[in-house]
Structures are given as structure tokens and as C-alpha cells.
Amino acid sequence: MSVELRLPPEQKLIAELQALAKEEQAIALAIDALQTGHFKHPDGRVDHLANVRVSLGQAGLLAFLAKECPTFLSVEVGFGMGSTAAILLGTRRLQGKPFVHAIFDPFGLPDGSGKIVQSYLEQRFPKAFRRIMKSSETGMAAMIENRGPECAGLVFIDGGHRFENVMTDFVLADQLLALGGYIVLDDSFFPAIETVVNYVKANRPDYAVAHLPVPNCSVLRKVRRDQRSWDAFKPFEVPQRENWTPSRKLPAQAES
Ligand SMILES: C[S@@+](CC[C@H](N)C(=O)[O-])C[C@H]1O[C@@H](n2cnc3c(N)ncnc32)[C@H](O)[C@@H]1O
Predict the structure, then answer these.
(1) Which of 79, 88, 157 to mutate to test the pocket of ligand 1 (most atoms within 8 A of CB)?
(2) Are 7 and 68 in contact (CB under 8 A)?
(3) Quick one: DSSP state of residue 145?
(4) Which residues of the chain have pLDDT under 50?
(5) How far is the CA of 157 from the centre of ligand 1 (A)?
(6) Which domain does 100 fall in, by range?
(7) In terms of domain of life, where is this protein from (predicted)?
(8) Is 245 a domain residue?
(9) DSSP state of 93
(10) Does the CB atom of residue 213 touch ligand 1 within 6 A?
């Protein structure tokens, strides 16, 4: 069994995020985009988020964890509209240390949304922003080969949403993750993602787990190295809900 991870309450996370927005334009623009549904590039162009939006609580949680990131490298799976990338990049810059934030996503959104946000992030963070046009499955595996294990302090997973996508992302993120680092799973209201959280809770005592510290998100912290025997397996609960059936009624903003 994993131990429970304690994190600040949602309202505190949001208040801290709003304070960061006063110091970093990328965070202010991302918050405005999450609230209005439109990312307004300072050059006048506008990108439309539709339902690809995290809540302010989720954004605040990511900012809190970005402050704690113990390594040069942080990683994200799924660029989407780039809102979470903007929050992570902006918060990491405010820590005043060199860093790189690498995002795997070879697809982007079907209607081409997100390109204006990406061009903003490229300009604003020319050294730190890396969009890698590979799937997380091949991209994170190559990153483990190239940079070695335990090189990342924060991995945010919001890419493919089927069970095997998220489980593969967890397995690779676990290898990339440094001791003390965090894996964040978006969309953990939903059964495929909740199943991965349940696997970790039952089988991975090397992780402390906060399930739903804010709506629709779970956090896993690597608190020690994996010392299980080769045959270790503990049964875990698989929610008996299909497809995109949430564990509770969704707030309006947590739909993707
Ligand atoms: C829900 S969006 C991410 C939203 C993002 N967090 C934001 O703030 O806008 C999911 C993204 O994951 C990408 N994706 C899907 N499967 C993927 C995979 N196997 N590897 C990397 N990215 C993937 C999609 O192209 C899409 O852009």
C-alpha cells in the first residue's frame, strides 16, 4: 500500500497561482484563457480553447508542484492548448534557476487550435520550451536512453486517455522520475485513469499518493526506490464504469 500525500487545499493553490500571475505574463494569459475560453496573444491573435481546459485548482496544483520540481528537466505529455505548459513554464521561470520543460505531442488538436499559444511560448521561453513531435510512448523511452533514468522532477500526464496509454505513460514517467519528484495524472475522475491510480496505491509503496486533491487530478510522489520482489502483485480495484463516465458529477470546466 502507498502512503497518503498531503497537499495544500485548493483555495490556497488558486490564491498562490493568482499571485504568480502578477509576476509572469504567461501565467496571467493562461489564467485568462482558462476563464474566458480564449488565449489572447499580446500581438492580437486569438486561440480558442473550446473544452480543452483544466480548472484553476488544477492549474494551481501544477504551479505548486513546479515550484518544488527538484531537477533541471520537467516533462509534459499532451500539448493540447498549451495552458498547462504556460503555467508550468511560467512558474519554473519565476524560481530563477535554469530549466527545460519538454512536451511530447506529435498530433496537436484536430482543428489546429493551440498553434498561437505555441508560438507565444516559443517567443516567451526560447531556451526552456521544447515541443517534441513524438508520441509519449516513443519519446519518453528515447529520453530515458538519452538522458538516463531519474532525470525529471515533474511529469504531467494528459496525452492519450485510454487505460494502456496512461499506464504506459506512468511506466515510462516512473523511470524518468527523480527521487522526490512528482507525476501528475489529469482526468482521474474517469475510470481508465482512476484504474492506474488504484494500481499505484495497491502496488507501489515507493509512491505517496494524493487522489483528487483538486477535482479531476491525482498526484504521485516518488518517496523511495522500488524494492519489490520480481513476483510482486497486489490486486487492485477497477471501477465498474465505462468510457468517459466520471466518478462524480463534473464541474463545467473539467470536461477534457
Ligand atoms: C487534453 S489535451 C492536453 C491539454 C493540455 N494539458 C492543455 O492544457 O491544453 C491532450 C493532448 O494529448 C495529445 N496526445 C494524444 N495521444 C498522445 C500520445 N500518445 N503522446 C503524446 N501526446 C498525445 C493530443 O494530441 C492532445 O493535444
Answers:
(1) 79
(2) no
(3) H
(4) 253-256
(5) 9
(6) 3-222
(7) Bacteria
(8) no
(9) H
(10) no
Say how many domains are in the chain.
Answer: 1
Q: How far is the CA of 212 from the centre of ligand 1 (A)?
A: 20
pTM metric for this prediction: 0.97
CA distance 181 to 177: 6
- What's residue 248's pLDDT? 73
Identify whether the C-beta of residue 239 lies closer than 8 Å to the C-beta of residue 194.
yes
Distance 231 CA to ligand 1 centre (A): 33
What is the reported pLDDT for 50? 86
Amino acid of residue 104:
F
Is 229 part of any domain?
Answer: no
Residue 63 sits in a domain whose CATH number is 3.40.50.150
Q: How far apart are CA 120 and CA 56, in angstroms?
A: 21
Q: Answer yes or no: are the C-beta atoms of 188 and 212 closer than 8 Å.
A: yes
Per-residue pLDDT tens over the stretch 39-76: 999 999 999 998 899 999 999 999 999 999 999 999 99
